[in-house]
User: Fold these one by one.
Assistant:
Number 1:
Amino acid sequence: MVAAMSAADELPIPVPPDRDPPELTRGPLGLGVILGIIFGASSIYLTLKVGLTVSASIPVAVLAITLLRALSRAFGSRRANILENNMVQTAGSGGESIAFGVGVTMPALMILGYDMDLGRVMLVAVLGSVLGILLFSPMRRPMMADPALTFPEGTACAEVLKVGETGGSSAKTVFGGFFVGLFYKLLMAGAHLWREVPTKVFGKAFPGASVAAEISPELLGVGFIVGLRVGGIMLGGGVLSYLVLIPMIKFFGGAGDGVVFPGVKPIAAMDIDEIRNAYVLYIGAGAVAAGGIISMARSMPTIVSSLRAGLRSIGAPKATEAAPRTERELSMKVVMLGALGVVVAISLSPYFPVGALGAVLMTLFAFLFVTVSGRLTGEIGSSSNPISGMTVATLLMTCLIFLAVGFVGPEHRLGALTIAGVVCVAASVGGATAQVLKTGQLVGATPRRQQLGMLLGSVTSALVIGSTLLLLNSASTVYTLKHEAAGLPAPSAEFGPPEPLRGPESLVDGGSYRVLQLPKPAPGIPAGKYLVDETDTIKYLVDPGINGRIKARDDGTPVVKYDAPKASLMALITDGILTQQLPWVLVILGVMIAAVLELAGVSSLPFAVGVYLPLAASAPIFCGGVVRYWADRRRKRARAAAGLAAESDLEAESSPGVLMSSGLIAGGAIAGIGLALLALAPALQQAINLGGRGWELEDGASVIPFVALLLLLARVAARR
């Protein structure tokens, strides 16, 4: 045992090609899969809440070192070497990338009036991730050899792995942030000891205006990682929505009794949320679409050069078993047959009703954007990779081609979203694959083993993430009797099979009802999903958890809803182009806002996301950015006073504040998922609800725990 541990300790870094230490072993691979599932679940939660994710590769690398070392001591086994630690972060990096791709596209199905079934979500998640890993393989060698590609997160991960002795204290910071975020969220959103979203609505002097903040640990952590500039730009978008656009609409439209499309009642009778949902969301969607396209246009030289390099690399000689270990990778035969198998499997599935044309488009867009994503990851890092812009471009081009050939039916909308989903997952996973392979190159890993580890980690995470997405939606779904169509006869339509109520409402009504799906409004009946009784009378409105509008059950119990901003944009593009029914004036206003920002030298995409999101989501992100700015300046002054060199980008990426913020994100998101699922056990949910017994702090006092959390993060982040 001692000799084995010594051999592991004596490995040079990077590990030379003539050494072949253990690498793709069960323990590290299993740990990577588990961490991938945890961070993937937190990423799907963030994607649904604010349309953003942050790279989890560095926290996973830190945890790998510490957890494997602790397991080695506990069981008296061989100490893991650097390649096994690297395998943990390789397998663990797949979850986050898949979560973004699934969360950006699949919820759009419900927004268009369809059910988000598990089979389609699994198809997109699993096969999209496999396609991304396989299609990146021909680009690995030219990209890894390109000196212009720095792969910032991949390089940082390699340094963390090399300096493994610091993993203990660093991991304590991640674990500390995780448990702080977990318990903070449980006390706030589970026990309801203070309000989640303190709100101030202005009076008659400023009608329609309001400010709010969702004081959650995961959004604070996101703000710290993205920094003050991005957080400030997002907050600016929220200020435009809630303190300019909504009050302006209320002022100009509040005097008349007419209904302004796409609203369904007079503006004077609308509250703030109704004005936002009817008008401002379309403006925000137009701005987000324009921002994504602009980010793609900026990357066009990179797109062209990446595509050329990718095509050249297909004909390049591949590494074989006779090649050095550090150059062995999946053979071109495996790559081509595997990618072809994935395309055929998707094309023949019942979830892909657009035939050969759809398969060709999916293959072309997937190859293009996997290539682009890998190169952009090398230039700007995976957290800044504009995957949403690539997805918008895919969906726009697919829908325009479908429109040109007459594919405008409901099944074609499903097909277009499935193509966009597969391409989005493939591009996201392709970028993550590029990052982990760069880390492997810097520590001397075997590419083929990393590719196999990434495949296993991605597929496993995809299975869990798909189920998590549906569970979050189901747990926050409301069955309400209080709606406009209650008691009206159901319109002539094809009913779905009967289904029972789920969640707390099932305790009151155990019956089953036929399902009525209305993608478009009927006379007197808004679009949505309804349950119809045996007399053909509409009884329940089924308000989904994702993009639902009803935030409390009929008994007054509050329910968490997920805005899913990027998915709403995908639904708007698909429906708007294929049905040619959109409030184009509002969309064009959003496009013009994005254009003005770009002319002023301000990045339009984060601002557009801020316009689309509730101000409550942008405010804590901005607070996290302020803490990052203060902590960075404090550390800079301390280093200058000690005569030390300025902090490098690598040190900043793995600083205590970033590690704690990653823990806050994971802890808060995991608690949020657990509490959402707790809605399926209403008795336990009521038992832990101390706020319902009069213990909840009011709006002003609710800020105190958040300020305490903010100060704790600032104290940790100021450490060197």
Number 2:
Amino acid sequence: MITTLHIKNIGIIDDLTIDFNEGLNILTGETGAGKTLIIGSINIIAGGRFSKEMIRKGEEFSYIEANIYCPQNNLAIDGNIIVSREIHVNGRSLCKVNGRLVTVNELKDIMSQIIDIHGQHDSQLLLNPAEHIIYLDRFIGEAMQVKKEKYQNLYEQYTNIKQSLKNNYGDEKERARKLDLLNYEFNEIESAKLKMGEEEELEEKMKTINNAEKLQSSMNNISTQLNENVISGISSCIKNLEKIQDCGEIYGQKLSDLKSIYYDLQEMERDISYMQQETEFDEGMQKQIEDRLDTIYSLKRKYGNSIEAILNYQITIKEEIDKIQNVEEVNNKLKENLEQLTTKMLEIANEITNQRKENSQILSEKINKELANLEMPNAKFSVDIATSQNFGPNGLDKVEFLICTNVGEEAKPLVKIASGGEMSRIMLAIKTVLASVDKVSTLIFDEIDTGISGKASKAVGEKLKQISKKEQVLCITHSASIAAKGDYNYYISKKVQAEKTYTDIQKLTEDEVIEEIARISTGEITKIAKEHAKELRKAS
């Protein structure tokens, strides 16, 4: 049980320490005084979600610490556990159990064995059919957990093999479709007969073709000028130098140099002539080059941004084709393992189904008994179990809670029947039944009296009193009937000092308890209201 709770910088709570006790601890007080913040703080220290907006305005962090006495819990040291959680505005968070740092998930696992909190969120969970199988399995207890653990180990292997088969194209139609696609892509690349550097070469040719007219004209002019002017002029110069080469060594040298230039120009003229021929083309050649470039561009759009990338992709395709063609042996082995797993899983799943069906009757009877005690004598709670052929993480079953609240009506899903007040009592009935199998030592109820009054409220109070004889119960309430059942009553109030709001809590004396019950009953503390409060108190 929680013996001491210390809260610092949560909402309007500045620095608050509360000493709780065994039995039924009742929390009442003004609206907005911080009652829900106290329960919220316990939820945070139990590993629940935290928003930095919950940190008190102007502060840098929030801190919650609880001293918990649970001598039968194997997590305790000398019967006590000190749990703390510190959260800063920058998002930094520290969780500790007996001074040892733990993760939030570790904290949640530890505290789930100690504390069970019921609020409006739990009613929403109860309306979700996916949660119903969890409630039923919790009721069945350890025997179910052992079977489920064994089943879920097999189920994990089962899903892994199914995924491997999918990745290995285990479906024959899928494999055939993939193989057809890969063969098409491979053959398309193969038939193109791509060559490295081919694209650049073709683009250069296209550039020449696109400038052919200009090139023809310029090259023709160059050839004419070389032949008619430059070469013939140099030839004439050579003849004149030959006539005077005997007149001195220098003339012979110049004749040699000029002949060298002459031969170079002749070579250049021949090159120009060849280049001029290359600029000659027909439309068929242009079309051929354009078509080839279109083919390359099309393949680039599909398989890579260069011929090198396309050819590398072709290698990858070939490897995948080989893998698919040779995967049959691997898949056959996987399918064999899958068949063996399926047989084992089916055996365990059927055992789980039978166990659920047997215990669903017991659970229904127990909950119906509790509902009768909670002023719902005509309500008939039942558990519907539908079994399919498809394995899921919890077996083959789909579990849904049904209820009939009036005589002569048929049972329907909770979401279609139950009102807010009915949901509170149904949840309390389930909590009461599960308390016999759960190992938690503290049950917390946040406004369990929502939507109920009169005899129903009194019945809820009596049920909380009954539960508190075995487990510690903390309960926020606005009901006088429930408040009157408290073993220990706390009053939460708020005050304003220096333009800041502060939450305060006071453990009430017996006279103060009478006055608080009177205030809740009528809104005023009158003599008649106090007498009524005393009567409620005596009845507790």
Number 3:
Amino acid sequence: MPINAKVQPSLARKLLIPLVLLLFLLTTSIIQAQQPVFRIGVLDDPLGSVSQGARLAVQRLNASGGVVGADGTAFRLELVTQATDDLQTAVANIQQASVIAVLGPADNGTVLNNLGLLQGLNVPILTTAIDDTIIARDTSDLIFRIRAQEVLLGRGLANYLIDELGESNIVTVQMDVASTAGVVGFTTALAEHGVRPSRSYLLDDNTTVEDLVEQISTTNPGVVVVYGPPATASILYGELRSSGWGGRFAYNQADSTEFRASVPFERLTGVISVTTWSYSSPTRASERFVLDYIGAYGEIPDPVAAAAYDGIRLLATAIGNPGTLTQNLANLDAVRGVQGELSTSELLVGELSNNVAVTELGAFGAPELIVRYSGNTMVVDTEDEEPIATQVAQATFTPAPTATPDSPYLIVTRAVQNVRSGPGLNYDIIGQLQEGDTAQVIGANIDFSWVVISFRGGQGWLSRGILDLFGNVNQIPIIAPPPTPTPPPATATPTAEPFADVVIVGVTPNRLVIGQPFTVTVTVRNQGALAAGGFAIAATFEPGSVYAAVNLPGLAPGQQANVTLTGLLTGATGPRNVVIVADLNNQVNEGIAGEANNDDYIYSYVADNSTLTPGGLGSITLAPGSTINLDGSTDDLLWTGTDLVAQNGAQIYLLSGFTSLDQIHYDVISTTTNASPINVTLLTNAFIGLRTDTGNQKRGVIRVDGAISGGNLTIAYRVYN
């Protein structure tokens, strides 16, 4: 008994310790499960820069307790990531997830061509696209840009070349149509300094790189500023140096791996670039981000990842303030971001960053930060924070695996990943892992498409393609898969009950005139198996929230009919997207699937002002020396054979970000910008904003359909009342 009396307390203590730990883990899990969640959508490939930057920020925030709302409630953040291959489906999936905001898309064209679709989410959209026209074309105040716009990049480069280096003999080279916005932004910035490019070159079907090299070498400028694809830019740079030209070379993508890999190592030094952020930035926030990113993904982050990381931090800050999220994003002060200080209250509506970095390739070919700008102001970095070296161990949020660094381990990159009993979707799901979870890899199948972990006392299999794997994979043993499970016996598929199904299959036209009665023709079809009785079609058109509806007596199976909706729009011009609702009051029994698609049709159109041009669109071919009067007053334009020149107080400038004349509307045309004359090298496939002569001062737009140096100029044009 005495022996037992001594042993029992010892056993009790041994049992108590794991019990306390178990209770702690259970309590933590319950608290986390009960913690409310804010979901943020991401329109990007799961392994894209926007996704990876956002994922890193979310995991760091959640690891520190989440974000705190204005009422003191703590929230966890979750990402809903959708690739943009099928943007409509991606947006629909994100909408169903009840997100509070969306990051992405990153591509200029994707954003510009789908503004209405994105606005339809009715939450703040934080994009990393930098085209100057994105915010100008947004009529919802829901689109935010989390990187400095193209014109600020041009201004930063111009400031550095002119103010810091004293250069003025500058030529520009545009190597593709997609670079128009960059060239326009830079030349606009030069004009602010009273400098015009000595020459502007364009690589087109009639010009080769060798032609450009010969022309540039002959004029011998002090600086060549290039915009275009890295592969072509690297060839031009190499040929220029081989020709003996010794001036400065500036290229907006010089930091890219593709450009640096295509240029001989000894020629990389000194190439100038401009970007929204450089990983060589010396601020503590930037250095911590770089270390965390490398630790998480094993690669160096790019400017898009940095902007996405900042976007999550801005959302977290905005959540903590009273008011709407959209208003809070536009009124933040001195948020310390990776890109620099973010004071959105001092910027134009929709802009979240005005930070620009000018870099120069160093002796070993890596970009070195030369100067940073906040808008038009040079930023002087100061040592106002403790050195980062003391914080490195705390900066990496990724949980350390129990294995040694050489032992292979995995990190789950999806919100949830199924663990299965074998290597295939036909095996049973035996559990799940969450995003950020780690596990030691103990085996794999023979083609390495599935890996094995120890899971709940047995083996669990995870698909290799949707997780990150680290460590020495050569030592992972091959494990034979368990027997394939026997599928359950097939059951007869019940015959679906027939229903009517009313859907919208088409709507015209694609342009409505503000201030004039409109007629919209809607084609509606019954694609179901039963006849549809009477029902209504309706929509609310913008601007002006004009409600219109019409009743149909019914449709037989397979029958379709055209109906018209009419009204009068009032308000600002711009692209619009409205839902045309079929069976407005659910009068037709359409079954579950049929009822669900009644509001699926999104009608996209441009609301625009009336035109002075007969038929809405005119066209003309001008010979060298010819003028044209577009508004019934005096001549507005002169074609010299090399330049398009505004006459009698008219104004012209290049429009960027548009792929068709139909996208351009009255309110997007500036009444103050003037870039006359415009050289033929910039005219091919260009869109030009116009204000006619001082007599009438009408707004208009021109599409250049053909421009031959020394020859004819062919244009299509629209002039507004």
